[in-house]
User: Fold these one by one.
Assistant:
Number 1:
Amino acid sequence: MNVKIADSWKNILQTEFEKTYFKELANFVKSEYKNNTCYPKGKDIFAAFDFCSLDDLKIVIIGQDPYHGPNQANGLCFSVKDGITHPPSLINIFKEITTDLNVDYPKSGNLEKWAKQGVLLLNATLTVRAHEAGSHQKKGWEIFTDEVIRQISNEKENIVFLLWGGFAKKKSKLINSKKHHILTSGHPSPLSANRGYWFGNKHFSKTNTILKSINEKEIDW
């Protein structure tokens, strides 16, 4: 695995790439991609960092694992490529946006346009074997992405963290809540959403209200 990460992130993450755990992780990922079908494509593994520079960062959304079906994962959590059927969690995210902001349901599930506005769409695990959810968990990715969250908390101010579901909520311990904004709710997956833990959280309008209050440009969700 060649680590090609955007320059703005290199400064705060370079030391991670030199650690033993990361070298072992890189070897594991290289072997997996060589011997199995894995997602996203190798060039998209660090896409979340490519589309959203540290300097422009406003929002962090944390996912768990990339999609493991063909042509779905594009390196941004919850996002799929143009023309790909929207997975259930993404459908519920878009449903909440339509009611929260009174806008039309988006045609494309590609969230690159969010990322380009300063939304870091970070999966805790950045790779997965095809059709095997969680297959690359506990190999070192979580150590790396926890450090990303920790560094953002240290280096930045007034970032809005959207923590959806139990897994993401646990990341709040890495964030200094005195200098950042943390919004939590249930996960947008059907299991959680249909039990009433997702719909009506108004996270998209609440985020824009926070951005407005600190004189930052609102996100065009």
Note: The CA atoms of residues 100 and 202 lie 5 Å apart.
Number 2:
Amino acid sequence: MAAITKNIEKTMDCGLGTEDIDGILGFSYVADAIEHELRVFWHFTWRDWSAAIIPGTMCTIAALRALDSTLSAGFTARSVLYCLLFLYAFDIANQINGIAEDQINKPDRPLPSGRVSLRGAYIRWYASTAAYLAAGAAWGVLPWTALWVCITICLTFGDGDKHWATKNMLFMTAGSLCLLQGAWGLVAPPSARETRWTVLLSSAFGILASLQDLRDVEGDRVAGRRTLPIVLGDNFRWVMAALTCAVPAICWKLEFLHYSHVLVGYCGAALTLSTFYMAYRILRGSSRKYDHKTYMILTYIFCGCVAVPVVFP
């Protein structure tokens, strides 16, 4: 504010009138408000970009490649905005529902840290959800958009997050499907082949998504959740490592063999090595920070799988 006042004094010395000064003040206020909202958006969402914004945008690019279309800046920008709204609306609702948990697990988030008030979070959730639905309607993907809004409400405000089966296997799988089908649908309706691919990838991600709960056990107990790490206890790491090792074999059988390009085999080998490394980390993990990095590796593998049709349309 002192810098703004100093600039105003300089403009007055230059002979600018009251209307000019009001314009400067108005511009500065708008610029500050935009910067503030961008910071709030970042603090709400930064942990989840590799699970939503990046794979969703790559899926749209894959659709453009599959249709032999030139990469359109318009479609890409549309996809980025759509995925931003997809993530923002969900993260706000999720964090409104998880304040008590976040005070233990993630105290740096906007609500437990006091950076955003609860009323402000609700206003942003209503606004971002309305914008997300409007974008889905305008761009021809309203069914997937509306389904994601319903999932968000059930998961966050309807206690769908209280049990591992609904939290991850059902809602994470369905949410990933909404993201990928919607992102592809921004370009053209997905064919049966693309739908099969997205169902397979979303199912694998939903099954393995329980990895994220390893880092949040203490807060989940406070919130009354029955996540898989809480239910299985010490056996969870062995069960999840086994499932992780099984994923590349299932994907190879159901999807990779449908591609004739020899380099796709290398993609399958890379998937196998990366999942085996992740299984090793699951068994070796002993701290929240280490387990968080393991889950992030899962999201990177998810992005890598989405990138395969970008390279081999």
Note: The chain has 15 helices and no strands.
